[in-house]
Amino acid sequence: MPEIEMTIDAASGQIQSVQIQGMRGPHHGIIPQHLGDLLGKPAEETNTPEYYQTVTRRVTRRGGR
Amino acid sequence: MSKYYTYTDRVYASRECLLAALNDLGYETVEEGDALPLYGYRGDRRAEMAQLVVRRQYVGAASNDLGFARTEKGYVPIISAYDVRTLRGGQFLRDLGLAYGEAVAWELARRVRGSVHRTVQGSVVKLVVRY
């Protein structure tokens, strides 16, 4: 199940990190846009290994050449 | 007379989430305008202007207005030294940040039709939106 994890420093109330998890490839859809609307541009952005995983779809044809 | 300071390291990108966070802290009445002047506890008009203002009568007897100025990145708080020192035991900005984070999580959950799960791990509040 995809999820967005946000951590906040309880002592300062400042957001430390936001991570999108459970989605492979650079296909997070509209989530980064929502995060930009609500939190602004991140100070630093890092792609997790999941980001670089490709999603392949196999199509099998029957009866063709 | 307490001096006003602008906290540019505290940026609230979303007006709606900022209003929700203020409401969560009990500040339900917020004035909104293009260039609202801020007033001190004696009713003295200050030089600082803001787009969102919690008037002092809704803050506390000896308090000054709380302002939030709109910038390119979002709203930044303009708060007097006295109020930063005394509001919510001197933890107003911390509490507002936590409330803002929660408001963001709930707004994200609403947009993706998900749910919010909150946990505290030591000195870190973790908010997870599942969808």
Summarize the structure.
The complex is a heterodimer of chains A (65) and B (131). Chain A contains one helix and two strands, in the order E-E-H.
Notes on the protein architecture:
The complex is a heterodimer of chains A (65) and B (131). With 65 residues, chain A is of the alpha+beta class. Chain A has one helix at residues 31-39, and strands at residues 3-9, 15-21. In chain A, strands 1-2 form a two-stranded antiparallel ribbon. In chain A, strand 1 (3-9) and strand 2 form a beta hairpin. The relative contact order of chain A is 0.20. Chain B is an alpha+beta fold. Chain B is built from three helices and seven strands, in the order βαββββααββ. Chain B has helices at residues 15-24, 81-86, 92-112; strands at residues 4-6, 31-39, 45-54, 66-70, 75-80, 115-121, 124-130. In chain B, strands 1-5-4-3-2 form a five-stranded antiparallel β-sheet. In chain B, strands 6-7 form a two-stranded antiparallel sheet. The chains are: A alpha+beta (65), B alpha+beta (131). The interface between A and B is medium-sized, with 26 and 34 residues. Strand 1 of chain A pairs antiparallel with strand 7 of chain B.
